[in-house]
């Protein structure tokens, strides 16, 4: 399966496509130099294929490349960061306790 993740700033979300079909998204709000992730969703037809992880990694990598901090209000993104400690530095130091990171 070929996947592609793209930022769609007009809709305030990162979108993942599987074999050209929309498969899910990670919605965010931009506050200055921070991205607050609020909801992640994978279409039920694509669940169990690792697309959530692919989406989370790509969205967080894009945030890092753009110099944005991350506020993981979304439980999926927060849990993904907790399992991948190399991404904890994206969450501002003063906000980590708030997210149990």
Main pleated sheet = 5 strands, mixed
* H and E order: EEEEHEH
Give the tally of structural domains. Answer: 1
Estimate what percentage of residues fall within beta strands: 35-45%
Low-confidence stretches: none
Mean pLDDT: 97
CATH architecture: 3-Layer(aba) Sandwich
Question: What helical percentage do the residues reach?
Answer: 10-25%
Number of helices: 2
* Topology, number of strands: 5
If you compute it from the alpha carbons, what radius of gyration comes out, rounded to the nearest whole angstrom?
Answer: 13 Å
CATH superfamily: Gcn5-related N-acetyltransferase (GNAT)
What gap, in angstroms, lies between the N and C termini? Answer: 33 Å
Reported by name, the CATH topology is Aminopeptidase
Going across the major beta sheet, what is the strand order?
A: 1-2-3-4-5
Envelope shape: globular
Topology, please?
Elements: E1 3-8, E2 13-18, E3 21-31, E4 34-42, H1 51-65, E5 69-72, H2 75-83
Parallel strand pairs: 4-5
Antiparallel strand pairs: 1-2, 2-3, 3-4
Can you summarize this structure?
With 101 residues, this protein is of the alpha+beta class. It is built from 2 helices and 5 strands. A 5-stranded mixed β-sheet has the order 1-2-3-4-5.
């Amino acid at each position: 399966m070929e996947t592609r993740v793209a930022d769609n700033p007009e809709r305030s979300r990162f979108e993942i496509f599987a074999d050209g079909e929309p498969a899910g998204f990670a919605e965010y709000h931009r506050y200055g130099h921070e991205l607050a992730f609020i909801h992640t969703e994978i279409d039920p037809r694509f669940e169990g294929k690792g697309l959530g992880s692919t989406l989370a990694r790509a969205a967080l990598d894009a945030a890092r490349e753009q110099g944005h901090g991350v506020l993981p209000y979304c439980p999926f993104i927060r849990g993904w960061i907790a399992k991948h400690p190399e991404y904890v530095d994206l969450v501002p130091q003063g906000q980590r306790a708030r997210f149990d990171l």
